[in-house]
Structure formats: C-alpha cells, structure tokens
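Job type: complex structure
Entries:
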Amino acid sequence: EVQLVESGGGLVQPGRSLRLSCAASGFTFDDYAMHWVRQAPGKGLEWVSGISWNSDGIGYADSVKGRFTISRDNAKNSLYLQINSLRAEDTALYYCAKYDSSGYYESGAFDIWGQGTMVTVSS
Amino acid sequence: EIVLTQSPGTLSLSPGERATLSCRASQSVSSSYLAWYQQKPGQAPRLLIYGASSRATGIPDRFSGSGSGTDFTLTISRLEPEDFAVYYCQQYGSSQGFTFGPGTKVDIK
C-alpha cells in the first residue's frame, strides 16, 4: 500500500524551530519528487516547498523562503521540512505529497498525500 | 504571478444533478500543469484530474476535466452522495511555484 506518514508537528512558541518528517512506503521513493503543502485551519491549500528526486532541484513559496528548508534521505525513504523562526501565520496542517514526476517542477500533479501533521504557533 | 480564481464559491445541488466548476487563471497556464483535487472534511486532498483532462487512477468516469489557456472546467456528470466536498484547481508557474485556487464547495441542496 502506498503511504505517506507525517510527524513532528506540535505547539511551538513564535520564533522557535521545528522539524517535520514524512515516512514513505509502498513505492520507489527515489524515483519521485516530493512536496510539502499546508492548510491553515478553515482555509485553502498552500504549496510550501518541493524537492526533486535527487535533491538537485528545490523550490519554496515566497512566504517561507529563507526560513524553511526541505530535504530528503532516499536511503531512509524520508522527506523533511526544517522550519525556523516560526510565526503565527505558519499555523497549519502540513501535508507531505508525492509528485508524479522526478523533477519537482516538471509537469505532473500531487498524486499521493499523507494525513498531515499539525503545527500550531502560539505563545 | 498567476492567480487562480474558482467559481462559484459554493455550488448547491442535489444528488444526480450535473456540477460544473470553473477555474480561471490570470495568465495562460500550461495544461500539463493543471490539476484538480477533491477534499472532504477531515481528509487529505485526493487527486482527481491531471494534465487538465486526464483522470487519476481509480477516479470514476463521472468526473471529467477540460479547458486550456486561462479557462478550465471540472464536470461531475451525475453527483453521487460521496461527491459533496471542496474542489481545488492547481497549477505550476516558473516564477512563483505551485498555486491552488481558493476552492469550490459542492454541497447538498
């Protein structure tokens, strides 16, 4: 069964850091680009970041550039998101999503999604 | 920066009726990068349509996508009870990355 399982979310104070993880199974992880997409409570979907199969291509939304770092470990079938300098507006459910191409910017779509991990930024 | 606008915001229909959802881009979008997703309350989004008109694996044929350039449409030919959900369109642009539309909620009339 193809599966993505996120972890690492929680309640964090503004300005602190957090590292999200996504464990993949049921497919050849290093054949595909991976992404993070977030959804603030009661709001729509917002793309956060993407990474190509071999980590050579990486992209970020303007809203997180300079604060978030995406990475992957193909040997561990895992995707990560390092979040620094957290702000209240980063409060959201963070989804890990498989992309159906090897390059994060190639034509394709987010074909598999995890259930998300919640990040709440509050003092 | 390409902005996606979805209309209507809410669509109230009865089971068995046809649903037509619109996604309009502020600039021309490559069809290869236009996708539609369904999201039900408490669930992750699910890919329905990719490449503007190709159904994803396991998606019933009552769902269809069409369009090109700046105007795209998701059609649900006959609404089933499980189709009442929020639908998002999504595109990729080299300058700003991936963007989603604000969503159309299809609810039961």
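Summary: The mean pLDDT of chain B is 96. The interface with chain A takes residues 30, 32-33, 35, 37, 39, 43-47, 50-51, 56-57, 88, 90, 92, 94, 96-103 of chain B (CB under 8 Å).
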